[in-house]
Amino acid sequence: MGPVVPSYIAQARLGQSSGCMKNLLIIEDDAVVARVYRTSVEKHGFAAEVCTDGQSGLQRAQEHKPDAILLDIMLPKINGLELLKRLRNENGFASLPIIVLTNAYIPNVVQEAFNAGASQVFNKANVTPRHILDALEQLLNGGKVVVNAAPVVTALPTPQIIYEHPGSPPPPSNYGYNENYRGGAAPPPYEAPKAAQASAARTRGSCSARELEAHRAFIAANTEAVSAMRKLVQGVIGAAHDPGVRDPLLLEFYRKVHALIGSAGMAGVSDLAQLASVLEVLLKELMDQPKTINDSTLRTVNGSVEFIIELFRLSQPGTSDLPPARILIVDDDPLSRRAILFALKKTHLEFESADIENPSIALNLAQQRAFDLIFLDVQMPGLDGFELCTKIRSLPLNKTTPIIFVTSLSDFKNRAKSTMRGGSDLIAKPFLFVELGLKALTVLLRNRVCPRREAA
User: Fold this and answer.
1) Interval 47-60: pLDDT, tens
2) Is residue 57 assigned to a domain?
3) β-strand 120-123 against 351-356: which pairing, if any?
4) What is the pTM of this model?
5) Is 329:375 a contact under the CB 8 Å cutoff?
6) Do 97 and 216 fall within a single domain?
7) Three-state SS string across the chain, please?
8) How many CB atoms lie within 10 A of CB 435?
9) Of 100, 118, 140, which residue sits at a domain end?
10) 3-state secondary structure string, 343-407?
């Protein structure tokens, strides 16, 4: 039996496996992400070239016929899906290995990428250069990337591959608009306790030198962009009703979030990458459907940005998955409960839920079991949501549990009342699915960074 060849020595031969150097075309608009991928594949025997928009990427592919393409979906000029479709319809590109990088939270995009002819699809928030090299090794040698059989898309897949799935319905198109929005100052930055910071330091100490170097590069490359996000979101809030000022700020904000996802994923900062991925989808919705820009969506965006800034400060590679969350949903309307559950599932959260129609039954359940997050309607028979919230706050098991009101009563008076009665936040009905999912993810990640202390 001959000597065992380490996987990365074998991969180093990949680009020269047929006697000549393989050419990889990287079509990616974020310079930092593109540089990392280019450096990684060149170390393993490839000749790599980068194009920063879909139009130049399409032209370069047609002129030089690379051996493989690494393609981002969100591109300027021509998006990745359209580029992929055009290539597959041309001679010489039918079987070319094309690996697609995308945001797993965008509705139907994974299925659309496979339908358009993607050889493999990876979640940009999770994929590393090593996963790309492994996929190239198999695809260029005539094989297919081996994945588990279960057709499930998870937020943090292992291996980090997006599995083909049948798609899902898009968010509803009819949303309310709140004319009463007046903006406001950002809340003070969240301060994690020293215990959480010490835990982060211990985790960093257990990382490999390569992981630590990738993390340091991530921090250096993104510090300025993350700081700029706060100014951009405040600019959007201040110009909420002035499209001429608001829309360019919103686009620039979206671009910074989009760029953050790829670099956070490569650095192994999974919490931050996951949160930014869902925020990106909400920002795209706000740009595509400006009528969804209201007090509720802007407060959700602002709160998520403040927490992204804090996660960036405490970031560490190799964060583990969220444990299944315990969520209580109380609403007498079965369609509303179903919508909340659907929104949570679209965010790929793992959770156990109790969706209750009767608020009195919900109160009894809250006396017996601690929850990680509670959603309450306001207008319910017998015991309205404000009263129920007050009673839950008196229970030892759920005294500090985050409680989010989901209600059509979203004017200033009711928002103030929700706070006085112990509510943590309020989302206006009808809500965007991704808005509710982003709010829930922000709360649950915050709970992990700063675990709440249960009353004795």
Assistant:
1) 999 998 999 999 99
2) yes
3) unpaired
4) 0.72
5) yes
6) no
7) CCCCCCHHHHHHCHHHCCCCCEEEEEECCCHHHHHHHHHHHHHCCEEEEEECCHHHHHHHHHHHCCCEEEEECCCCCCCHHHHHHHHHCCCCCCCCCEEEEECCCCCCHHHHHHHHCCCEEEECCCCCHHHHHHHHHHHHCCCCCCCCCCCCCCCCCCCCCCCCCCCCCCCCCCCCCCCCCCCCCCCCCCCCCHHHHHHHHHHHHCCCHHHHHHHHHHHHHHHHHHHHHHHHHHHHHHCCCCHHHHHHHHHHHHHHHHHHHHHHHHCCCHHHHHHHHHHHHHHHHHHHCHHHCCHHHHHHHHHHHHHHHHHHHCCCCCCCCCCCEEEEEECCCHHHHHHHHHHHHHCCCCEEEEEECCHHHHHHHHHHCCCCEEEECCCCCCCCHHHHHHHHCCCHHHCCCCEEEEECCCCHHHHHHHHHCCCCEEEECCCCHHHHHHHHHHHHHHHHHCCCCCCC
8) 27
9) 140
10) HHHHCCCCEEEEEECCHHHHHHHHHHCCCCEEEECCCCCCCCHHHHHHHHCCCHHHCCCCEEEEE
Per the structure, the complete domain to which residue 261 belongs is given by 194-313
Q: pLDDT for 226-277, tens place per residue?
A: 889 999 999 999 999 999 999 999 999 998 898 888 888 877 888 888 899 9
Structure tokens at 377: 């309607």
Whether residue 343 lies inside any domain: the answer is yes
Average pLDDT rounded to a whole number, residues 141-152? 47
